[in-house]
Amino acid sequence: MFLPSVLVYILLLTNKYHHKFYYDFTMTELVYGPVFWFHVSSSYLYALIGTIILIRHSIKTIGYARKRTFMFIFATIIPILANFFYVLNSTIGLNILPQGYDLTPVSFSLSLLLFSVAMYKYRFLNIVPIAYRKIVSNLSESIIVVDSFNKIDNYNESFLKTFPVAENINTYDDIKNFTHYLKSNCAPTAELERIINTINDEKSTNYEYGDIDMLSPDKKSFRVSIQPLFGKKQDFLGRIIHFNDVTEYKELLDEVKEKNAELTAMNQQLSEYAATVEELSIARERNRFARDVHDTLGHSMTLLISLLEVCNITCKKDAEKTQEKIAQALKVAREGLKELRRSIKGLVPENLKNSDILSSIKSLIDDFKPSGINIDFSHDVEKVNIDPRFSSVIFRTCQEALTNSLRHGKAKNVTIILRANPKKIELFIFDDGIGCPDLKKGFGLTSMTQRVKDIGGNIVFGSDGESGFNVKLVIPLDHVD
């Protein structure tokens, strides 16, 4: 459209070489050439097409936009008519205007005035509406605008892509055609019915929103919001309806609900497991406490009984020796009470607190000396560092074995042998007591067996039935980190 005007202008500047624009151009005579008539025809054609476009646009627009369009039409037509009459007057002598009088420049001044009013009063150069249309057109939300008569006024590109029925929807169609499509293709719910009724109610001016689930052609979920539109005087113009695709959000929400259900079930299982573990822990602690108390009290009471028996014999013959044995009995009672308190707190025996296993066994042997029993202790553990866990089991085994030898076996002599190498630890305890023809494990032997089993060891008890009792303990080390 621009090139013909440029070509005509070039031909005008070079007219003296070809005389195609003017055959003759003097103060007294003006003869037009073919280029001039082409120029006039194309200019009128352009003006006519532009005017038709403006008229069509003014029919579709409302408010001040229509007034602005009419101003543009008048501003365009005025110089065209002025020039048209001037050409007729100068070429065919129509005598509408005085000869040689041209109103075209004056008409352009009037046109500029109308253009100025359209630009400043009616905001012709305001690009905000254009920006709004561009933004709305590119939104991911599907948007449809309905006027106060429930006629579809406009919709964006996303609406066309989201709803297949949109291809058959035209401007000024009734919105009920679209709501019928929604009702036929969505899951029937009370919320869907409420939204459709709000859309179809042409008098509704309330803001509403809700969720709908489409079943075909694709399964999708939408968050629908209906917002009323009002003019400057609060007159109701229509509604704008948003369809926001929340399918992914709903799927994630369903997945979260499913995971929550799984977590609830797992939490229930963990609670049951925790309760079971708590019961097992209580039972284990109860058993540990019972074993420790049994060993501590058994050891202390056995020594006390032995010392008191000696006191009963010597009290009438040797008061000094009796007083010595009573002092030893008091010491044993105090030590026993202290060990009982340590057992309640779950602490290791006092003899093992700051000493190695050899010193602990020697201290234990010293505790039994007042009872009159002879204990021989030999060992070969100089090159092996025994784990504290194993030391505790070895100590408790020696303590229980010596207590049984004194209380049940009435033994006079006991032999303890402790050997250790990088592969295993071995403990042997022999006494010359009365023996045990029919061995039945009581609480003491059962506790010894459980302690050894807990650290992966093995313990064996033996007796020939007439004299003596022996204990063999083996703790393998090759499986220990």
Please give a handful of descriptors for the protein shown:
481 residues, Beta-Lactamase, Heat Shock Protein 90, 3 domains, five-stranded antiparallel beta sheet, 56% helix
Question: Could you describe the 3D structure shown?
Answer:
The chain has 481 residues and is of the alpha+beta class. The protein folds into three domains: 2-120, no CATH class; 139-245, PAS domain (Beta-Lactamase, 2-Layer Sandwich); 275-476, Histidine kinase-like ATPase, C-terminal domain (Heat Shock Protein 90), CATH 3.30.565.10. Helices cover 56% and strands 17% of the residues. The chain contains 15 helices and twelve strands. The chain has helices at 2-13, 15-18, 34-60, 64-91, 104-120, 128-138, 157-162, 176-185, 190-200, 247-314, 319-344, 350-353, 357-368, 388-407, 443-454; strands at 22-25, 30-32, 142-147, 152-155, 208-214, 220-230, 236-245, 374-380, 413-420, 424-431, 458-462, 469-476. The chain has a five-stranded antiparallel β-sheet, with helices on both faces. Helix 10 packs across helix 15 (443-454) and helix 13 (357-368) packs parallel to helix 14 (388-407). It is rod-shaped. It starts with a helix and ends in a 5-residue tail after the last strand. The model has no long low-confidence stretch (mean pLDDT 79).
List the helices and strands and how they pair.
Blueprint: H1 2-13, H2 15-18, E1 22-25, E2 30-32, H3 34-60, H4 64-91, H5 104-120, H6 128-138, E3 142-147, E4 152-155, H7 157-162, H8 176-185, H9 190-200, E5 208-214, E6 220-230, E7 236-245, H10 247-314, H11 319-344, H12 350-353, H13 357-368, E8 374-380, H14 388-407, E9 413-420, E10 424-431, H15 443-454, E11 458-462, E12 469-476
Parallel strand pairs: 8-9
Antiparallel strand pairs: 1-2, 3-4, 3-7, 5-6, 6-7, 9-10, 10-12, 11-12
Helix pairs in contact: 1-3, 3-4, 4-5, 8-9, 10-11, 10-14, 10-15, 13-14, 14-15
